[in-house]
Every structure is written in structure tokens, then in C-alpha cells.
């Protein structure tokens, strides 16, 4: 077993790359496994004095330290998106244990402003961090997030990459056509935002680039997100309105650019019905 504890970041030009003309943007070592190359950005992390420091290079230019508002003291960071020449990042600060704050950057990825506080997070089965944030496929800048407010978790939606957030309007009627009495902001629709790691199966929320504006998700109607009374909901207008489609969890597959949706009930018994 080889343990790599020292990682250096070296740069040189492809046509003339030798030991002599390699450059080191950082005097010391970068943290192992901290290198991220995504679109126009390169990210690295260095730890000094027991605190992590985050650096970014835009279009392969000189590295600059990423600057959060002066009151922020980050202890962990995850790059969520680099679409449209902006960095969308989730940052866990010194006083947070099970939540992250979302930040949005300028074009160079250097200066960040707060987009949403206290997004719920959890640890996956392999110890990996999972943040309750879902980027809707097919529509740039559209995200769903589960925000913790006074020990309640509520689902919020943004269409402009975190500048504005709002609660989800619950359906007007339930599966049987009976009216649903749910008044914002006291009551709204809340969704589970976990994504399946298996590309051949649906998670409990799904959207596709080939079927923009169609979202299928499991969740509940009420004052907060719940693990009981879970139903399935669909939106065909990018999360603006929703309707209930099942009272139990189903896996949903997209066919024909969303012209056909196929649902299978979550069960250990043999599948006898497709919806």
C-alpha cells in the first residue's frame, strides 16, 4: 500500500516540457485528491495552520485564492456547478455539522456571495458527503434545495442559480380529485432530492436533458419534509405546478424525449404492472 501524502501542482507548456522549465504555482504541497478540473476552472485546496484554503484558476491563468464574505470560515467545500461562467459551490462553515451554505461566484470564480443558507447534508453509506441539492437537467440555473429552518426541512426552488428562492406550490387536488388545502408559506410541497448512483435506475427524483421541464419526484405535502406518507409527484412546467401521480414510491423511466413515462412500483415481489 502506497500512501501519497505530498502532492505538487506543476505547470509547463506541452511542446517543451522538461524538468528545467516546469513551474510551481504553490510553494508547498496541495492537499491530496483536491484537484478539480471543470470547464474553464481548475480548483485546488491547501491546508495551513489547520485551516483549508481554496484556490481557483480561470481559463488556466494564474491561481487566485477564492474569497468568501469576511465572516465565513469554511472547513469543507464542494463545487456544484460551473455553468455559464460562474462557480456554484456548497461550503460547510466552522459552526455547521449537518448543513452547508450555497455560494455563487463572479466570472473568474474568485469572489463569492451567499445564495442560500443551511442546506441539509448527510453521509452516504461509504462516508461520502451528500448535499440535498438537485440540479434540474435540461434547464440552466434551475436547482431544488432542502433548507433547514428551525429544525424543519423545507424544499425551495430557484430558476436563476440561487439569486431567488421560493417554496413549491402544492397541487390543488389529490390523486382522487379531492381538493388539497395547503396555503403558502405555512404549507407547501417538499421533495426528497437523493439521486440514484445506478444510471439504469431512477432515483427518488429524476429529470432528463432530453425532456426539459419534466420532473418526477417523491415527497409529501405539509409544513416540512417527512419520511412518512410519501407520494409521487410530476411537474411538466419546470416545477411551477405539480400533480400527484402515485401514493407509493415508484421508479420512473423516461422514453421518447419525455413523450412516454414508465413507472414501476418499488416492491420485492415480481413486477406485474407497468404504468
TrEMBL record:
Entries under Pfam families matching the protein: Sortilin-Vps10 (PF15902)
Question: So which domain of life are we looking at?
Answer: Eukaryota
Keywords on this record? Glycoprotein, Receptor, Repeat
**Tagged with keyword Lipoprotein:** no
List, alphabetically, the PANTHER family matched.
SORTILIN RELATED, VPS10 DOMAIN-CONTAINING RECEPTOR SORCS1
Q: What is this protein called?
A: VPS10 domain-containing receptor SorCS1
Q: Which GO terms describe its cellular component?
A: Golgi apparatus; membrane
Amino acid at each position: 500500500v502506497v500512501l501519497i501524502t505530498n502532492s505538487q501542482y506543476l505547470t509547463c507548456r506541452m511542446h517543451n516540457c522538461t524538468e528545467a522549465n516546469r513551474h510551481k504555482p504553490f510553494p508547498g504541497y496541495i492537499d491530496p485528491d483536491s484537484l478539480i478540473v471543470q470547464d474553464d476552472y481548475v480548483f485546488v485546496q491547501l491546508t495551513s495552520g489547520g485551516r483549508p484554503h481554496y484556490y481557483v484558476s480561470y481559463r488556466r491563468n494564474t491561481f487566485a485564492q477564492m474569497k468568501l464574505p469576511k465572516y465565513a470560515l469554511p472547513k469543507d467545500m464542494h463545487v456544484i456547478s460551473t455553468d455559464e461562467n460562474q462557480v456554484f459551490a456548497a461550503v460547510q462553515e466552522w459552526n455547521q455539522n449537518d448543513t452547508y451554505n450555497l455560494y455563487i461566484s463572479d466570472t473568474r470564480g474568485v469572489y463569492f456571495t451567499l445564495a442560500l443558507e443551511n442546506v441539509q447534508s448527510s453521509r452516504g453509506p461509504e462516508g461520502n458527503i451528500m448535499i440535498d441539492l438537485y440540479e434540474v437537467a435540461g434547464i440552466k440555473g434551475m436547482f431544488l434545495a432542502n433548507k433547514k429552518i428551525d429544525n424543519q426541512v423545507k424544499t425551495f426552488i430557484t430558476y436563476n442559480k440561487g439569486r431567488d428562492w421560493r417554496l413549491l406550490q402544492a397541487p390543488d387536488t389529490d390523486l382522487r380529485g379531492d381538493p388539497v388545502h395547503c396555503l403558502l408559506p405555512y404549507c407547501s410541497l417538499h421533495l426528497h432530492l437523493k439521486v440514484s448512483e445506478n444510471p439504469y435506475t431512477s432515483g427518488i427524483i429524476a429529470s432528463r436533458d432530453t425532456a426539459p421541464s419534466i420532473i418526477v419526484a417523491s415527497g409529501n405535502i405539509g409544513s416540512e419534509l417527512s419520511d412518512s406518507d410519501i407520494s409521487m409527484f410530476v411537474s411538466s412546467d419546470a416545477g411551477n405546478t405539480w400533480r400527484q401521480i402515485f401514493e407509493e414510491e415508484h421508479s420512473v423511466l423516461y422514453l421518447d424525449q419525455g413523450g412516454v413515462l414508465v413507472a414501476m412500483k418499488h416492491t420485492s415481489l415480481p413486477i406485474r404492472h407497468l404504468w
